[in-house]
Amino acid sequence: MSDHNLENKLRKDLGLVSALSLVVGMVLGAGAFMKPPAVLEVAGDYNYALLAWIIGGIFSICGGLTLCELGVMFPKTGGMLVYLEKIYGAKVSHLYGWMITVLFAPSLVGALVGYFSSVFCLLFNIDEAYRMAVSAGVLGFIALINAIGVKEAGYLQTFATICKLIPILLLAIFGLWKGNGQVALLGASGQGIETYAPFAVAILATLFAYDGWAQVASLAGEIRNPSKVLPKAIILGILFLIIVYACINIALFKIFPVQEMVSLKHDASAIASQRMFGEFGGNLVAVGIMVSILGGINGYIMTLSRTIFSMAERGTIIGARFLSTIDEDSRSPVNAIIVLVIFSFLYSILLDADRLSEISMFAIWVFYLLTFIGVIIARKKYADVPRPYKVIGYPIIPIVAISGAAYVIYGMLIYQTVNGIASIFLTLIGLPVYYYYHKKNQNKELSLGEMKKYHNKTQYSIAYASLIIIAGLIAYGYIVSSGLAFKVLMLFNQFIK
Length: 497
Hints:
The protein has helices at about 15-25, 30-45, 45-75, 80-90, 90-125, 130-150, 150-180, 200-210, 225-255, 260-265, 270-275, 280-310, 320-325, 335-350, 355-380, 395-415, 415-430, 430-440, 460-480, 485-495; strands at about 325, 450. The chain is about 75% helix and about 0% strand. It has 20 helices and two strands.
């Protein structure tokens, strides 16, 4: 397999701070606020819930450390797409790229955007008819930043990560300090609820909150000194997240009895803040959630657009020439970013985001499992390739990562069978697509990976397009909320009669 011709054109602008911000910023999102009640509900009591968060973090660290070896061996933009291609061949890597392009990336970003717009409208008391306008606005803003360049997107990620820590730390610190002592850890708590769910389901819930750490490896080609930066970013980032999640959970445990916290569900964090700080505290948590989601949207668009770009360079996807183009000014895969943003917006409007997220998570963990196994295969297949970084504690760490991935897949197949089957079906559709383009491009010299000087500044075009979309959707929201469409329809019916 030959190297793709534009890898060396992408700027190596990301250092440890930006990479660490990507790990923390992409993982630390709505899950920090939404998952504690769900984990507690299936765990049954405080001790098992806290243990589930710790084990989920351990699985994530082992997975991250395992993935880092491949990231440093093959520091190419595209991340897992490159690793799977090197180890298993073009078909498996194509299936991964197909799954990312049509399922994981747009559904996950679309879900985050949908949740952001929902919280935004609730906080500012905006009519629900304007949710699409908010979604278009936030996607346009993130697309604009990423079109300018990866360095600017990294600055936004760092800013969002720092800002989101404020409400999270306030909730954790004041909850631990002012809590009324409901919690009793490391002993018989005397509190609990009856649950029939196995412990695997509780760990599964935490892994949704931890997901995002693997995507930073897709930027290895744009990270300075990846052999040192990648392992540090993942280890420090996830260790920090384990501590944050544990503190938030213990703080909530000290405020609520088990039954009350479970019954409050996603509102538990906001109500806890209101009890400590009044109405202002609840609004602060809402702002924190929005900033968290904003960082997640930016991080996923940064990383997943590179995977789409890297797949397009292989010529086995619709619109390969368009998607493999880099803007000469920003050196960013602007076309891939635009396509990802458009489809994410459509997914957020047309499809059920929660279900799509569950399907996409099943799909990504199947490929996580293949990648973890691939580290062991690579030790023999690429024995002579320099490894500036090797997995700590090999082969124990990779085995723990493999076991964790298998545990997640088992849990999803048992408790979300329909979603699992749907995910497999949608992923396997990529095989006939691969065979079609493989046959079509056989014995052809592909001319992909173009450096393009856009006639109009791309970022300005995106900004103008976003403003037009927002204006149109605001008009749509006004028509819907005012009942104008119904009045026009009635007049039209009268005119016909």
